[in-house]
Write a structure and sequence with these properties.
About 3% of the residues have low confidence. A hairpin with a 6-residue loop joins β2 and β3. The chain folds into two domains: 147 residues, PvuII Endonuclease, Chain A; 71 residues, Winged helix-like DNA-binding domain superfamily/Winged helix DNA-binding domain (Arc Repressor Mutant, subunit A), CATH 1.10.10. With 255 residues, it is α+β, with helices and mostly antiparallel strands. The radius of gyration is 19 Å and the shape is globular. The strands form three sheets. The protein has a seven-stranded mixed β-sheet. The chain binds zinc ion (ZN).
């Protein structure tokens, strides 16, 4: 499927973010397919859940859309902190679509982050709004994209060109094993996978992971048994097919 990436040909006006929102929602309902099944469309959500913008009419997978002119590869501003933490704990956070558009109103990048990659360590609490704000005291959050491994950043459109649909769907399918894990365990699994990815190589050793121990400890301050936890997570990653055990403390990432 080749996505037509122009959001709106006639948008020469200086448009505010509200217009960008309308145009990008319109583009998604016109062009986007479901990455989770073979449905060639996703539809605007009819539920009253503010975080859910689209649902798949076939498999009911839900999606939130964020459209931005510029994006920071490390973090993206999200809505309320406590609502997000509740959604993570109850395993109801939607998949996220990050859409970046150009000043000419073309879709430059669309990145899909499967919902299983939202964990408590990827959510950063922002400062409460100050007393002069309309919603004084309200606490928002940032999604730390840097805490999400490459496996959880699936390009649908990259540099204005749509990625092959089959590849997007197989990348989504590949990490679907994470959905089987309870959210309390999944946080650790995603963090360990992120650390493995950051080693930057396909074959790695337990010793190399132990060198990242402090970083994992900081993400999970209440846990005092980081090394056993790392070993446990390696087994989990093997069981869901993301890594292989080679023996003698060596592992490889599944391609
Ligand atoms: Zn679907």
């Amino acid at each position: 499927m080749n996505l037509r990436c122009s959001i709106e040909l006639a948008a020469r006006y200086k448009a505010g973010s509200q217009i960008a929102r309308v145009l990008s929602e319109d583009w998604c309902s016109r062009e986007l397919y479901c990455p989770a099944c073979d449905s060639n469309r996703i539809s605007r959500s009819r539920t009253n859940t503010p975080a859910i913008d689209f649902t798949c009419p076939k498999c009911e997978e839900s999606f939130q859309l964020k459209s931005l002119r510029n994006w920071n590869p490390n973090k993206v501003v999200d809505a309320g902190y406590s609502a997000m933490i509740r959604a993570i704990r109850s395993d109801t956070a939607p998949n996220l679509l990050l859409l970046q558009y150009t000043s000419e109103w073309c879709v430059e990048n669309v990145l899909l982050i499967p919902r299983v990659f939202f964990t408590e360590s990827t959510i950063e609490k922002r400062k409460p709004l100050n007393s002069t704000a309309r919603r004084a005291g309200w606490i928002g959050c940032n999604i730390l994209l840097s805490g999400i491994p490459a496996d959880g950043k699936i390009g649908i459109v990259s540099c204005g060109v749509s990625e092959p649909t089959g590849r997007v769907r197989s990348e989504f399918e590949r990490v679907n094993g994470l959905a089987e894990l309870p959210p309390t365990l999944r946080g650790w699994t995603v963090d360990v996978l992120n650390v493995i990815r950051r080693l930057g190589k396909r074959r790695f050793s337990l010793r190399e992971l132990y060198q990242m121990e402090t970083e994992l400890q900081l993400l999970h301050p209440n846990n005092r048994n980081t090394r056993p936890k790392i070993r446990q997570q390696l087994q989990v990653l093997r069981d869901i097919g993301l890594i292989n055990f080679e023996g003698r403390g060596y592992y490889t990432l599944e391609a």
